[in-house]
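Subject: two folds for Thursday's group meeting

Dear M.,

Sorry for the delay on this. The cluster queue was jammed most of the week, so I only got both jobs back this morning. I'm pasting them in the order they finished. Each block is the input sequence followed by the predicted structure tokens. Could you check whether the formatting survives your parser before we put anything on slides? The first protein is the one we discussed after the seminar.
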Amino acid sequence: MLTLGLALITRFSDFRSAPFLLFLFMIGAGPILAAGILAAADGRLSGALLVLRSGLLALLAALIVDLAVRWGGRLAGAGVAALGGLWAYAQIRRGGFWSEATSRLDAGLLVLVALGTFLLSPFDPQAAVPVGLLDYAVKAPQFSLWLALGIAWTALGLWLRQREGWAFIKSRRFLAGGAVVLAGVVILLMYDDTHFVDFGHYVPSIGPAVHALRGGVPMVDVYSVYGFLPWFVYRLVFAIFEPAFGPAAVLVRLINLAYFALLFATLLVVTRRWVSAAWFFVPALLIALCSHVQGFDGMWNLNALPMTMGGRYLIPAAMTLTLAWKGGQPVRAVALPLIGVAALSSIEILAFALAPWGLCVLCEAIRRRSPRYLLQEVAWAIVDVGIAQAILIGGIRVIYGRWVDYGPYFSLFFQFRPAEESIWSVTFPSLYALWFPIGLVYFLVIAVAMHRAFRLEPSSTLVERLLPVASLGMGPLTYFFGRPQEGTLNVVCLPFAVVAIAVAQRVFVKPQRFGPAGPVLRAVLAVTFAFITADAFEHFMRPLDPSRGNSSILRRCLSPLGCRLDELPRHIGLALHTDSLDRRTSVSAYVFDADGTRPRIEEARALVRRWGADDRQIALLADRMPNRMADSDAAIGLTTFMASGQWYPWSISAPIIDGASRLVEERTLARVSTVSDGLLVILPNEEKTMAPLNAAVLKRLRARCELQLLERGRYLSAFHTQGCMR
């Protein structure tokens, strides 16, 4: 794992698909192969493993020396190398080193992995402070005070963990229940009642829902890169409330709260010590929401990105909770319905739901020595997916009289993959290693669980309960390897926190039972928890802002404004029942007047009212490629049509996203070829900023029809088609 990880960091910085595929091997097949080899060797590889540990230790030491040279020059590198050599010499001279060589080398590996991760977080030799986490600590005002709070919070958590197993006998249940209630209240208070929305990121989810409301047929005319079920939930909400960004924002926040609650419930199931678990979960939740972009300035409201947390991982999290509850045993009665629901979602949601279930099934098959059991469970899953799809196909056939066509969906999904030609993927940052300890922990959990299965050891221990959690965490971690940016790594935080807290609870009590590596691991975990807690509270206590990750009721409660819970129903009511651009809410907080984003939408609406009020379909080609987060220019058409009740003359849900599919583009252009006279066409005055699909539509329109100018506005112009070719 370490060897492949180091190769990944240093050798594949200019590629997109190679790191992703290597990671899949590392975290998917690697632990199983390692566990099988160790079980088959039955202790005969101890010498080889000792040599391997020594080699890995040398590689990590060389990496750290290299970073020291990049930062401080050869003198700094020589100094770091000398300190490392002195430490190694002192360890060898200590009594009993050779009898405890394996554990002491593990202790050294832990220290170097922690140090290397800290240095590569990321490492920028050109910056004044090259180490990313150190740069953040220097820039954050009064970080020393926040660090003191983090140390105190961690120390109290350690004290609670050491005593909750035997102290407070009479009030143990009361304290555990109180801790759960308090953590639950914190989760509820993380509701963001500003309902801030990133229009562009909501479009792929709610564009298909509005398209279906306007007569589109699911999986025939209406497609989303997120599959069927995610956008269909919005369609159901829009059947109750008017289609707008506000109701979607409320739904996203409720889904995210459910996701947080599922992960917290999973933590309680995994661990036996609820007080310290709840204590450490709170800062983990805060850092997941507030500190997802590395550096001092990085902070974003993840509720504004509907598929980042619960939208993508709610069903897999439910699967994980059920598996952990049963000690890693895959119970069909619960697993199969969840697989069926996931099968109605997207390919990635199905994969993320199958991963925890599949690893638990494989572990049980190994323990039973039963390939038949494995094949039987896989067959049940395949049949389950087939039944779910048959229900979807049959339902659409009965309701709409049309047959489902999966081609455009696969075409859309294929464009958002880790490959050099992908419009979504980015190159892997070679000097960024915050992913490494997360991947390492997942690797070890899976490997240990599989190793126990190979050795026929009983299940339902901590490692079997953690196996589905580590499998869940692999989902967002693979997403990071497809799009390796700090923000995408943030969604790994909560699943990883469940694993880390559960492991720490064991290590914090009598670490000596793990040998010399135990106290070192305890120290590394304590320092890490203290820094993370300081980071979490520092980010969370920044000034309240709808666009920030700390935008929540809890943050307002800790400000001079006060909780103002009596205003919560009014805020939700406004979001549910007002237009997307209503200034009384913060739904459109980033749709500004000064940069022209709001005036463009308002002008599009005005042109539609003046020239196409009675038209059912309008060729509104105003969407522009976004320049920044929350740029509403990617949703001009959707925002206009939600208010007017109209739609495009062709089957399209989100011009910018749908334009990534060749099949969708071909279908759209074929419909353009049937346009007749009198169609209202609205174009941007600056055509070079148009979405590529809209530009292709305009080119085809001009080849078939003349465009008669009706009105030229500041940003947009209205035309009628005339003289269209028959």
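Second protein, same layout:
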Amino acid sequence: MDGIGGFPRAEAGGSGTDAADGPGADASGAAAPDPDTPRADDVPGAEAPPGRDGGGTSDGSADGNTAPGPDTPGAPDDTAADVAAVHEPALDRPLPEGVRHRVVAVAADAFGGFTFAELPVSLRPYARFTPSRRVKYAATALATALEGDPAFRHKVAGKLREAQPELTGALDAGTPPPAADPLDVAAAAYLLRPAGWAKLVTTAGEEAQRAHAERADEETLRELAKLREEVQGLHTQLRSDAVRARAELDAVRKEGDSVHRKLRSALSDVKRAEAAQRKIQAELDEARATAAQDKAAAESEARRLRTRLAEAEAAVESGRRAAREGRSIEDVRLRLLLDTVLDAASGLRRELALPPRDTLGVRPADTVDAVAPGAFSPRDIATRALSETDPALLDQLLALPQAHLVVDGYNVTKTGYPSMPLEKQRLRLLGGLAALAAQSGAEVTCVFDGADLDMPVLLAPPRGVRVLFSKAGETADELIRRLVRAEPPGRQIVVVSADREVADGVAKAGARPVASVLLLKRLARV
């Protein structure tokens, strides 16, 4: 009857010998796996069927497989080995490391030949691992299962019998082959547990340790011989290096002697050069003296020539003076004639009793009959007056000759668009002033307060607009007053600011104050 998941389940209440008497029993006494039963390598993470927790069945057999009985065919040696192992003394020390590793490797190789149900519970998580990964990650679990689970050890021993029949047969006969590897003999003895297996394991471990020590001694001897060869080579190299160093020292000494000779030659050349330099210096001093004499003679000649030039210029000036005096006489004669004519005209005006020219009441054009324009009354003049907030007033002021518009920058921008950042305020105002300057042709100056600035503002002023920042310790209002005072009296200056103090100050200086709202309205039309 099949269990859960399709695994074969042993019938409860069996004696454990009937399962091994079937035709599928192997040499170790374990029931051979059914061809349709999944193996440990083929079932990832499958759960044990009900009734097999802890690796046993209801009748106490491990992993659902009945342990081979004394009468089970194909496994008399294992049974005898177990009976003999009861009377054999157990190991009084841990397995040697080499023997333990070989036992774990044999168990890992035999791992894949079991079904998932045949594995102990502690080894089922490693069912899908490769043999090498089982050795790496499940070594402790395998060693524990082999020591604490005789049924699992018998199964592994059965796989070992199939894989190495000659070695296992010799161990069963009590005559292990002398040429076999001691580790293989010890691992097989640990799994098969023949008579005297503990002694075989201990002997094999000691033999392995002795072989390891011999290999270590051989390695040490080879390393020592290699070191001696290296030391001998170093001695040879040192001798050759010493010979080469002595040769190089001789070469350096020869080169030093050559350098000393060259140095002495160079010193003699320097002395000859110094003598030549002193000779040249004497010649140069002589040439300088000659040049000084020539220069004195040239200066004397130049003074003589300048004297002659001054005499010539004096003669020319006297000639010009004589010419001017002659022309002055003619001018005096002409002036006397003109005065005579003017006096005659004045006498004639008095004789004819003519009124002065500026007192004539009627002009010839006044005698022409035409309609004269009407006169303005106070009512007509009142209708022509402009409001202080009318943008046309600013146009009329800028239309005056040589008008100069001075703008308090931040006063205007914080009145018109205070929510914008200062940089955008400046750019917007300067753009409008550039258009206004182009339309009116007036001079435009925009003043910003720069008293709190740590460094100059990087700004490219637009065409037709002068941009100024006040200096440290000075406000924009003070800069505006200085600009107004710098202009000549009589020039039309228009100052745009909503500050009453600024407006009063520039008005006293002769400028025309205008509110900031008026400029904002005018710029809105640009």
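Two things I noticed about the second structure. Strands lie at 404-408, 443-448, 465-469, 493-496, 512-514. The first strand starts at residue 404 and ends at 408.

Cheers,
T.
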